[in-house]
Amino acid sequence: MTRVRGESVAPGIAVGPVVLRGFDAEDTGRRITADEVEAELNRLREALDRGRAQIEEIKQKQAGALGEAELRIFDAHLAYLGDAMFVTEIENQVMQERLSVREAVQLVFTKYDRIFQLVESDLLRRRASDLRDVATRLLRNLEEGGPRGAVAPTGPYILAARKLTTADMFNLDNEKVEGIVAEEGGMSSHAAILARGMGIPTVTGLRDLPKLLRAGDVVVLDASAGELVTAPDEAALAEATARAQQWKAGRAAAAAPSEVASHQTRDGTPVRLLGACGSQGEADLVHTFGMEGVGVYRTELQFLVEKVLPTEDALVATYQGVIQAQAGRPVAFRLLDVMAATIDVGQRHQERNPAMGQRGVRGLLVNQAVLRLQLRAILRAAAGAEGVAVLVPFVTSISDLQRVKAALLEERVGLKKARVPFAADIHIAPVIEVPAAAMSLGALLNESDFAVVAIDDLQAHLLGADRDNAAVREYHEMVHPAVFEMLARMAKDAERREKALVLFGESAADPVRFPFYLGVGYRSFAIAPVRLRAALRVLSRYSIDECRRIAARILEAPRTLDVQKVLVNLDLS
Q1: What is the DSSP-derived secondary structure letter of residue 310?
Q2: Mean pLDDT score of the chain, rounded to an integer?
Q3: pLDDT confidence of residue 83
Q4: CATH number assigned to the domain comprising residue 143
Q5: Are 123 and 77 within one domain?
Q6: Strands 177-184 and 157-163
Q7: 204 and 296, same structural domain?
Q8: How confident is the model at residue 439 (pLDDT cuts 50, 70, 90)?
Q9: 173 CB burial (10 A radius; 0-12, 13-18, 19+)
Q10: DSSP state of 175
Q11: Which of 2, 306, 488, 495 is most open to solvent, judged by the fewest CB atoms within 10 Å of its CB?
Q12: Contact, 405 vs 398, CB < 8 A?
């Protein structure tokens, strides 16, 4: 029995035999003859038709389980399957270069994928993920229609894939996928969003799966712990099967209102554990796990799944669904946080460094129509509700916050004149991710109800290291004394003004750093539901006094190495 750890993308327990996908042998590179061209083109048309039919069937099957924004992901896939440029380029490779249709699909996809990955645009990178899913679906359909036809599984199974894609999650037998393990794929991909929305336990970051697993092997997937167990013995298998049944029963029962769990440290100090999510399915997990509301709801998904802006009514419906699902618990909507070019501000040139350009509130202030569209939708969706907040991303100065507050007031007046129901009270808060905002937090808090500290982005800007750039990952993950000093300073600023600070991001749930956060005064956290277990383990282990002593030792450490020594010696058992 072997235990392998990866990254938990969607929580849960699953048991079943393995089906390997995406590890096929490469084509030989043999050129086809002129006589074979027509047959290859027919295979392409059949694969395209089968792909469209599959996606339409998936949309119908999942209409009740997934939200409107999540279902629109499949509309983007349909658009690619009908994209004349994409299809024509594949056909030309078959007709002119005499490539097999399988090789042509792979070549064209690789070309587009390389282009998408070279640009600094969240939108294009998400489109690269969608294109990868479409290409994967085409390749699977070509396999099933060709001489190497894949044998479909006959019962529930654990999917093991090279990359986490919707094409392998959703096929004609998609309801049989009990769990997913993949070598590649992150928390924010469309496949990950859909896995969480559907409650499919998923773990990524597991290397060399073909060496680790064979088709038909029975495995245990504890996705909540980010763990895959191969060759389990009978006792482990029986225990895991019982836990998997309990997990399914728990999800089914989650449709009914649940009580909010009370979270506290070992000595009884209250701590608010809120959810961080980006879709209705993830928001449901916040409810399922008894978290205390949604601390950060990322609103980008509805804007990125289609090439046109969503309508105000569509936004209202989504936001209302999130608010109602929380049954009175607080919900904070982060305004659109993408590069300005993504939301079509009429720019005539590509910014040299979009990540430091018109992103977040800067792009929204340039494109007032999008800003006001979101503000109206949130005001309407929050009518009759309490605890709803607007989060303003990438704030640098008080002026950014004041201009959004002015727009919010104007839209409230406009809705009142139009006699449209809207929220009487909406909280507003800046998202602190720029060092300038962190240094002037006190002034920003004077203009807001609370603040959200986006620790991952703040650390990236403070250390000058892109967290998505593998070449400088060691710099971003560095436990630099300056990061801890800034976090401690902000906690004091908030305490002096008696305003709450919500710590948000992947690092906010880091069990090694969690005692420090508590020790310097953070009491509210917005974390992914899959990170809840690790946070609870720390809370049960430490008292506030112990956390304060840990924080003091870290703040006294002059070098990164000294900070590491303190963190390494923490008892997280």
Answers
A1: P
A2: 84
A3: 78
A4: 1.10.274.10
A5: yes
A6: parallel
A7: no
A8: very high
A9: middle
A10: G
A11: 2
A12: no
Contact present, 461 and 483 (Cβ < 8 Å): no
**Of 259 and 537, the one with more pLDDT:** 537
Q: 278 near 197, Cβ under 8 Å?
A: no
CA distance to 25, 27, 90, 163, 335, per residue, from 208 (Å): 15, 20, 30, 12, 39
Tokens (6 digits) for 73: 């992901």
Residues 229 and 278 in one domain: no
Cβ atoms within 10 Å, residue 305: 23
- CA-nearest of 61, 63, 90, 68 to 171 is 61
Same domain for 162 and 290, yes or no, is: no
Helix (H) or strand (E) holding 136: helix 122-145
> Which pLDDT score, from 0 to 100, does residue 56 have?
85
Is the pLDDT confidence value at 145 over 60?
Answer: no
Answer yes or no: pTM beyond 0.85. Answer: no
Q: Which residue has the tokens 């949309």?
A: 59
Give a yes or no: residue 324 inside a domain. yes
Q: Dihedral sign, CA of 481, 483, 484, 490?
A: positive
Residue 350 is assigned to a structural domain of this protein: yes
Q: Do 280 and 218 fall within a single domain?
A: no
How far does the chain reach from its first CA to its final CA, in angstroms?
22
How many distinct structural domains can be found in the chain?
Answer: 2
Contact 519, 544 (CB under 8 A): yes
C-beta separation of 314 from 380 below 8 A: no
Give the tens place of pLDDT for each residue, 217-253.
899 999 888 899 998 988 888 999 998 888 777 665 5
Rounded Cα distance, 510 and 257, in Å: 29
492 and 361 co-located in one domain = yes
In terms of residue numbers, what domain contains 382?
Answer: 272-568
Percent of the chain with pLDDT over 70: 83
For the cut 80, the answer to whether the pLDDT of residue 26 exceeds it is no
